[in-house]
């Protein structure tokens, strides 16, 4: 069973108001560390102790971690849910445990949630490429069955429609939300007909695989192939060419997650909120302009 990380100590003169458990995969995304730091900073401001628990991005581990946190008598749970079965979320809601879903939002209205806006953000990326006269815009999709990636796929289709471009399944490949899966998906699209002149990549982790495969094939990003992505990796502005992307508001997500959990504890009967925070468009050179 996964061990809990010790609660983060508060400043010496800060009284402890609540103890929160954070259940998430510590290394599932390039921004996981940034999200943890954002939650800790927000917790400190409100006098909350934070206990971390690594789910390993597995539903089975997630259930074990939640049991440990409840046994540790935390006042509430911040959960970045693993893909797949929502049994853990259902159990938390049924038992009335104050809970906020963070980053990966679910398609439900009975629990507080906070994450990035996905549909309009990806739509804007597609329209940016269409404005550069690209008509064959491919899409590296994330893992199926996850609301976040379903929304990004919808944003891709919406962007095509608003740009007067017909959607075709031949320009879409699933990258399984991993670098290796994205590399394989990129190779598939570039070896097929019609071959895309531009790619929209649905996550930071998959951008690594896309970059790798393009370089392996000798394709010049920004010249032979325009690439834009969702999520701003630390290296995105340092590679050549730098990556055009939508940067998630990680600091705001962490802060709002803590605030929502405090609000739920204060008023258990309040209507659940789903908060979607707009990402920031960062224009660099990988799109070719």
UniProtKB/TrEMBL annotation:
Keyword Transcription carried by entry: yes
CDD domains: PBP1_LacI_sugar_binding-like
Keywords: DNA-binding, Repressor, Transcription, Transcription regulation
InterPro entries with a match to the protein in the record: LacI/GalR-like_sensor, Peripla_BP_I
Gene Ontology MF terms: DNA-binding transcription factor activity; transcription cis-regulatory region binding
Domain Transcriptional regulator LacI/GalR-like sensor: 126-287
The UniProt record lists the keyword DNA-binding: yes
Pfam family membership, one: Peripla_BP_3
Protein name: LacI family transcriptional regulator
Species for this entry: Amycolatopsis regifaucium
């Amino acid at each position: 069973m996964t061990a809990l990380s010790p609660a983060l100590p508060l400043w010496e003169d800060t009284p402890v108001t609540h103890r929160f458990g954070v259940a998430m995969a510590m290394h599932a995304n390039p921004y996981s560390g940034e999200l943890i730091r954002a939650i800790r900073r927000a917790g400190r401001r409100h006098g909350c102790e934070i206990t971390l628990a690594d789910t390993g991005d597995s539903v089975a581990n997630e259930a074990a971690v939640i049991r440990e946190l409840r046994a540790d008598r935390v006042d509430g749970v911040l959960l970045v849910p693993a893909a797949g079965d929502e049994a853990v979320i259902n159990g938390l809601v049924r038992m009335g445990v104050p809970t906020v879903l963070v980053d990966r939002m679910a398609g439900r209205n009975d629990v507080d949630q906070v994450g990035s806006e996905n549909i309009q953000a990806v739509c804007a990326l597609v329209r940016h490429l269409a404005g550069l006269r690209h008509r064959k815009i491919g899409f590296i999709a994330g893992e199926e069955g996850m609301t976040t990636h379903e929304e990004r796929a919808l944003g891709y289709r919406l962007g095509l429609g608003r740009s007067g471009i017909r959607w075709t399944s031949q320009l879409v490949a699933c990258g399984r939300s991993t670098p290796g899966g994205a590399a394989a998906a990129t190779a598939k699209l570039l070896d097929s007909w019609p071959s895309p002149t531009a790619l929209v990549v649905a996550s930071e982790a998959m951008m690594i695989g896309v970059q790798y495969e393009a370089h392996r094939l000798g394709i010049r990003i920004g010249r032979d192939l325009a690439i834009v992505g969702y999520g701003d990796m630390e290296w995105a502005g340092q590679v050549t060419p730098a990556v055009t992307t939508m940067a998630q508001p990680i600091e705001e997500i962490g802060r709002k997650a803590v605030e929502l959990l405090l609000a739920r504890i204060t008023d258990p009967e309040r209507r659940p909120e789903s908060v979607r925070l707009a990402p920031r468009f960062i224009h660099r050179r990988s799109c070719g302009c």
